[in-house]
């Protein structure tokens, strides 16, 4: 049931996000629905692959994201001075409750991808590398997210400069803060994943891979078209592409290896039949 449901929530989340193209870049209900559906997808996949205890770590990750946002709004650390508007719905301590789910939406795929790209062999250096890659994967998404949300009036910055060239209106401190918080969140998820055994017959990691690559593709295309931010598409495409492109290469390599193995098995079976 969990395995089927995660594909349902994934498909629903992708459908909702596709509606952004027909609504001038999305509406608040569509934004909340897409975040909730894709966050649920990550929780369901975590449950299906490593059980409920592992899935619960994503709730802890959401709590860390919420705490970081509360501190950020109150003190300007670590993101810089910013404020949320009431547009995203119910808030607690001036932080919309949908925001911590947004952290989970990409944090979980980021960790799964880092474990695939870097490897899961034991060792302190490898673990550091995994967490660093996962934090980059998560922070890279915000290069697309923040300009979209600022333009939609969901939050804003008092001092938007200096920033990343081509990504106007977002201070560099925001991305440094994102990377710092991402290190904590991704480090937690990776640590629990390393101690959790995969469920027997667990599904593959196709779901989190799909979430990340779908997000990457739609962010690039959206900024090139209806968002009308080609510079963000370029810069974000390069920064997030540093993770997405290697993942695509690895997945294609795996697919070719499986195809070659299948061809060899078929040829072997035919040879055995002909010798009878």
Automatic annotation (TrEMBL):
Alphabetized UniProt keyword annotations: Membrane, Transmembrane, Transmembrane helix
UniProt keyword Signal present: no
Transmembrane domains' residue ranges: 31-48, 55-77, 97-115, 127-145, 175-194, 206-226, 232-252
Keyword Membrane recorded: yes
Name of the protein in its database record: Carotenoid biosynthesis protein
Upper lineage: Bacteria, Bacillati, Actinomycetota, Actinomycetes, Micrococcales
